[in-house]
Amino acid sequence: MFTSPEQSVLPTFAVCSTSMLSSTSLRALRVVAPRFRPRRFASHDAPQYNEPSGYLFGEKPPPPGQKRVKEDWENIWYIGMYGSMLFAAVMLYYKPDTSIQTWALEEAKRRMEERGEKYKYEPSNPQPS
Q: pLDDT tens digits for 30-88?
């Protein structure tokens, strides 16, 4: 039905009534038509990305006999990441026991001591038969 992309972007009312419009009106619409194209306001142009290179993290390996040069942020990241893991492990190891069972056991022992009862289990000697 349409022969050029400019005509396919025209508003519906202009497409329906093209037979009634004069040639000057059609030229004016073709000039205005690019304004009606859908635009991508937030993303600017077509999406861009780094082409896959086949190397890990897109980093070429150094030539034989040379070491890889670390970037400035890498040592800080290693110290921060593994240091925080070590700190969390130490804190979890020394975390106080705040369970309800521990509290109830200590409270029961305290109350039994106040009443003068034994709270330790002592097995009785079996009767010789």
A: 665 555 566 656 666 666 777 788 888 888 999 999 999 999 999 999 999 999 999 99
Contact status, residue 29 vs residue 10, Cβ threshold 8 Å: yes
List CB contacts of 55: < 8 A, sequence separation 6 or more.
61
Cα distances (angstroms) measured from residue 54 to each of 12, 29, 57, 60: 48, 49, 9, 9
Q: For residue 113, give the DSSP letter.
A: H
What distance in Å separates the CA atoms of residue 9 and residue 2, rounded to the nearest whole number? 10
Answering whether pTM is above 0.85, one says: no
Cα–Cα distance between 86 and 93 in angstroms, integer? 11
